[in-house]
């Protein structure tokens, strides 16, 4: 029987849109990178597009990735990527990039020799639990799934490596960590654990996407992609990542595909693989194609660009533009684009968008995936990114929307007395995608006009939610509206302490008898009140002690202090 071969370097398996051919076709790694100036991925808004982009970025980075800003600027302005260097690199490693190599199959473990699973484990629905079988009837059939052609198997292999779920895994034969043939505590992959982010341009091609995703840096000592290393051993192991290339091609699972003589995959070996030390900290440090928020404890956590109702929040990407915020949101790719814009390498009129994805698991064990959404959100033009004032202004507009969104739910719950979860399900700002795009576009030419228009759109969106919310009386609805839209005054800075005066015993005696200074009054809820009076207002949902601690000791805005239930501080990022 002939030995199957499918070199990923030259065999067609990556779906692309070809500017020259005016249609979709499939190419190998070499043609994808050599033609990156005229090709674009065919499925950018999908999990498949993400894993293909990350593999192409890793191959380019390993072959000839720019080491300095000067090299990156030269690569950006060149008509094509460095085709001779890419060709030489892929020719050198062609055997290691063969999907069915007998000893070192690409992205797999050549140490596996038994294939106990059918091709259904490669099916995307296999990680979605019962719902996966419900929506994919082919997984419910008594007949085994038909073998996968090599191109499709290669794409599904990448997806499984990136998104396989956690939980109990079947141990590889001879794994000393096995307990009764099973392994416990399998991790989800580095990509599935965080928020992915890469940058796009309207009508842009693979060349732009790859370069915008990879800040220039030299290869770290000892760093290498998985195909430059010996094939991963069958047993599970825990180790640190050696660098960016290692992380981008992390062997999260031990997989091996069994090929028929016709080059189709009819059986699979699937076991737990390398477990990453330090988790998020390593990914935050090494992977620029991620987005992060800073928690109140000054820790990094994946940025959530969806609200609790799982709808995308169109202004969230702009929060990444202000690194000076108290609890900044960051992304290596965004910081890289800002630096390139400040150098003048990116054309000032070039619009930039952030494509974000965050894997949604259905349970706390992360053993079932419910969705892998991919959303593209506007960032602004390169000219806006090059201007620190414009970046801060766009981030401030985004924070304004977040504050109103939060305030809308809190005030409604406080004034109606309804449970917070019932209010939250109805009171998220929505249908603002086009308004935010217009605001970002207008801001490039007229920031004041953009700010004014955005405030108006936010008010309109909030009013629509208030008008649709079931309340007891029209008066209650108008009360909610008035409090939601009431300007939030900034707390004035405390005056410098006066020089202490000599103690006056008589005055001290009068003070003990109730003649002390009056309690300070605050502008809040349309009036001027002391904290004691505010604590008795219907809008206040906390005790006087909590209110005083927040305002006096922690510096909260008085209205936020009064209407925020629980212990979460203003602006504190939610951890997911």
TrEMBL record:
Q: Where is the composition biased (Low complexity)?
A: 487-496
The record's listing under NCBIfam families reads: casA_cse1 (TIGR02547)
Q: What is the superkingdom listed in this entry's lineage? A: Bacteria
- Region of interest (Disordered), ranges: 221-240, 482-521
Q: Which organism is it from?
A: Streptomyces silvensis
- Among the Pfam families in the record, one is CRISPR_Cse1
Name-wise, this protein is Type I-E CRISPR-associated protein Cse1/CasA
């Amino acid at each position: 029987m002939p030995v199957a071969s499918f070199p990923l370097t030259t065999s067609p398996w990556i779906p692309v849109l070809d500017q020259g051919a005016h249609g979709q076709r499939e190419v190998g790694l070499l043609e994808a990178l050599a033609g990156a100036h005229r090709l674009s991925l065919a499925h950018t808004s999908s999990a498949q597009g993400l894993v293909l982009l990350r593999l192409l970025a890793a191959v380019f980075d390993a072959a000839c990735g720019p080491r300095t800003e000067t090299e990156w600027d030269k690569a950006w302005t060149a008509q094509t990527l460095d085709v001779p260097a890419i060709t030489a690199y892929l020719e050198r490693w062609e055997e290691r990039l063969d999907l069915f190599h007998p000893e070192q199959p690409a992205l797999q473990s050549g140490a596996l020799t038994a294939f106990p699973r059918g091709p259904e484990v490669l099916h995307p629905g296999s990680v979605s639990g019962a719902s996966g079988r419900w929506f994919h009837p082919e997984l419910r059939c008594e007949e085994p799934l038909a073998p996968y052609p090599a191109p499709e198997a290669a794409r599904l292999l990448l997806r499984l490596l990136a998104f396989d779920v956690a939980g109990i895994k079947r141990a590889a034969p001879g794994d000393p960590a096995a307990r009764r043939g099973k392994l416990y505590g399998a991790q989800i992959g580095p990509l599935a654990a965080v928020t992915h982010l890469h940058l796009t341009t309207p009508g842009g091609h693979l060349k732009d996407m790859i370069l915008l995703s990879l800040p220039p840096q030299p290869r770290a000592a000892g760093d290498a992609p998985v195909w430059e290393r010996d094939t991963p051993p069958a047993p599970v192991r825990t180790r640190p990542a050696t660098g960016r290339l290692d992380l981008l091609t992390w062997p999260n699972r031990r997989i091996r595909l069994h090929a028929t003589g016709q080059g189709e995959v009819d059986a699979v070996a699937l076991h737990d693989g390398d477990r990453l030390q330090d988790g998020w900290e390593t990914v935050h440090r090494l992977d620029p194609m991620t987005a992060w928020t800073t928690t109140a404890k000054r820790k990094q956590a994946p940025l959530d660009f969806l609200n609790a109702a799982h709808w995308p929040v169109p202004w969230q990407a702009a929060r990444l533009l202000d690194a000076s915020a108290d609890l900044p949101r960051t992304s290596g790719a965004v910081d890289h684009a800002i630096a390139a814009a400040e150098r003048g390498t990116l054309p000032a009129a070039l619009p930039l968008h952030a494509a974000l994805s965050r894997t949604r698991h259905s349970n706390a064990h992360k053993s079932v995936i419910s969705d892998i959404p991919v959303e593209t959100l506007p960032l602004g033009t390169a000219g806006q990114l090059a201007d620190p004032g414009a970046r801060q202004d766009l981030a401030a507009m985004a924070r304004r929307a977040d504050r109103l969104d939060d305030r809308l739910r809190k005030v409604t719950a406080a004034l109606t007395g309804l449970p917070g979860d019932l209010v939250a399900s109805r009171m998220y700002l929505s249908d603002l995608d086009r308004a935010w795009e217009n605001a970002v576009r207008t801001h490039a030419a007229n920031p004041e006009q953009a700010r004014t228009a955005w405030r108006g759109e936010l008010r309109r969106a909030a009013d629509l939610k208030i008008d649709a919310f079931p309340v007891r009386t029209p008066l209650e609805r108008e009360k909610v509206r008035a409090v939601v839209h009431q300007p939030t005054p900034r707390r004035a800075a405390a005056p410098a302490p006066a020089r202490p005066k000599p103690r006056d015993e008589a005055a001290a005696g009068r003070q003990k008898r109730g003649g002390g200074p009056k309690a300070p009054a605050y502008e809040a809820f349309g009036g001027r009140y002391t904290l004691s009076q505010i604590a008795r207002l219907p809008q206040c949902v906390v005790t006087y002690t909590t209110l005083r601690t927040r305002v006096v000791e922690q510096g909260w805005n008085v209205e936020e202090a009064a209407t925020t239930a629980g212990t979460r501080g203003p602006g504190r990022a939610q951890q997911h």
